[in-house]
Amino acid sequence: MIWGHEGPGLQGAVVWTERVPGRGEDAEPFVAHHFGTAQGLVAVFDGSGGSGSSPVWQAPDGETRTGAWVGSRVARLATDCWFHDVVAEDQDNAPGQLRDYLEYFLSSAPQRRSKIVGRMRRQLPTTLAAVRYELRGESAECQALWAGDSRAYTLRPDRGLCVLTRDHTEEHDALKLLRSDPPMTNSVCADREFEIDSQRMAFPLPCVLLAATDGFFGYVQTPGDFEWLLLDTLMRARTPVEWADLLRREVQGYTADDASLALVALGYRDLSQIRAAFADRHDTMTKHYARTRPPAAATAAETRGWQDAAWQAYRTDYETYLPPLPEERI
After folding, report:
1. What is the Cα–Cα distance from 52 to 193, expressed in whole angstroms?
2. Residue 174 is part of which domain span?
3. Global pTM?
4. Taking the alpha carbons of 324, 326, 328, 329 in that order, is the dihedral positive or negative?
5. CATH number at residue 229
6. Total structural domains in the chain?
7. Which of 62, 65, 70, 154 is the 20 to 30 A CA-CA neighbour of 293?
8. Residue 327: predicted pLDDT
């Protein structure tokens, strides 16, 4: 599925792919903008197939669905209802309130207790990564919300792609996370306590906000590859729908997982203005990143050396808004 929206001040693009057609455990990305109050939300949900692989529900046509499949979609529905109530009733948007919605909806969802038990098993497990925003004058007041290892970002002409969330894993180095697959220390689920982490910030308009599951950023050579994908497809696109389609084609060429992305560009007149804003950044990434990539015949040591060097050059800007570790927070 791809989707695009183009209007003055608001451009949007969505990509949702399944590695196995009909069996994808990512829910469809969530994108909403309420014009009356200038509030919006982008969010993605990745059902955790490893810890939620047991079937828990059977559709009327006889097809069974796993706990991960159900969990991601129930979490999407809960997030939809939460955002609706935040806007319609001017409710507080604290992360604890979103957690309450998730807990309520998950407790009402179909579940089948597995005979397989263990520390890693979960009922209806899923990740969640979102950015809620409110336009105020010349800035966007934002709140990143997350549980698990899906991520939210902002894309800036001066710094490139900046992560707004910190994976709930014991490893926190983005390059090391690409080289390993550590278990999550926190995720949305029906049978255990979980937390919705959050971070508030403000960005001057115009700005680009996005959320993505690890199908987009988890199967590349370095963290900078995801930015290169975003910018290179942007430069070739003429409409948001074309941008989404190019992203879909590219991610399906390299990922080994379902992949979801939700993106909004706020304050830009149209896509041509976005392309112009990021042209210099694209040129910089082409010169110092894409063209320095080792050839296919490079040895493993040469490739690893390039990855380490590219990451160290990229890391400072990428981690500009990285939330502090829990023990570092005041």
Report:
1. 16
2. 2-328
3. 0.92
4. positive
5. 3.60.40.10
6. 1
7. 154
8. 66
